[in-house]
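Human: Cast an eye over this sequence-structure pair and say how the chain folds.
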Amino acid sequence: MDYQTIIENIYNKVLPFVNEGKQADYIPALAKVNPNQVGVCLKTLDGKEYAIGQAEEKFSIQSISKVFSLAMAFALEKDILWQRMGKEPSGTSFNSLVQLELEKGIPRNPFINAGAIVVADVLLSHLQNPENEFIEFVRLISNSQNVNYNHLVAQSERGQSYLNAAITNLLKYHNNIKNDIEQVLQFYLLMCSVEMSCSELSQAFLCFADHTKEFNYKNVHLTASQVKRINAIMQTCGFYDESGEFSYLVGLPGKSGVGGGISAIYPQRYAVTVFSPRLNDKGNSVVGMKFLELLTTETKESIF
C-alpha cells in the first residue's frame, strides 16, 4: 500500500474544508491557536512513517489523553474499574449533567468528561506522584521525552470549567469521587493539557494497534484482552455523540479531542493522527473526520 501517495492525495482533497467549523474558543488558550493548520501522520507496526503538513506541530491533545489515563487505570484496577463507570455510548454531549444525574453518578463511559474525571480520581488514589507518573507513561509509549503538559492551557481551562466543576461535585455527591474535588479536577485538566504532535500521537497509539501482545510499559501492564477492550470502547465511545457516525463513515477505533486532533488505529497495521483545529458542532475536527473517511474509503482498510 502506497500510503504516502494516498495521504498526499487525500490531503489535497480535504484542504477546501479547512475553513469549516470553529476552534474550541471556549478555552481561552485554544482560541489563540492558528485554526488553518492541517497535519497528518500514519505509522505502521513495521516501523514506517508517512506524513504531510504540520505533522510535527505540537497541539493540545485534550480528550485524546483519556485513552492513556484509561489504560493506566484499567491496568491498576482491572475489571473493578467498571463498578464506577459503564462502557456504553452516551448519546449526549460530552459534558452532560442530565445523564449523570439520572444515572446516579455512574458515568456512561470513560471518555465523556464525567468518566474521565472518575479515572483521574482512580489514578490519584493509586499513584504516588500522579502528575509525574502520567506524563512519564505518555513519554514512554510515544517514544518522546519532549512530551509535556501545558500548564497555561490547564489554568486557562480551569478558569472556564464551570460544567466540569459541577460534574465533579455531582460525582462526589454520589460517592464516586474519593479524593479532594479540586485536586481531581486540576489533575483531569492537566492531563488534557498534554501537548503532542501527530507523529508522537501515532507512535503512542501503535500500542493499541498491536492488540495481540501484552502492553508492558514500566508499571502499566495490560493483557492483550484488555488492550482489545480499550479498542472496543474507542470504537463505540471515542467521539462522544458522533461515535456512531464515525464508526459508520470511517470504521476504525479512535479518539478525538477538542484541540483538533483525532487518533485512530487499523488493528495489526497502523496508527494514524490528523490535526486540524476547527471543529464541528459535536466537538470533532471537521478536516480530521473527512480525512479519515477518505482514508478508509481509498485503502479499503477498516475493521468492517
Remarks:
- The radius of gyration is 18 Å.
- The beta strands are 39-44, 49-53, 59-60, 195-196, 215-217, 220-222, 254-256, 261-266, 270-275.
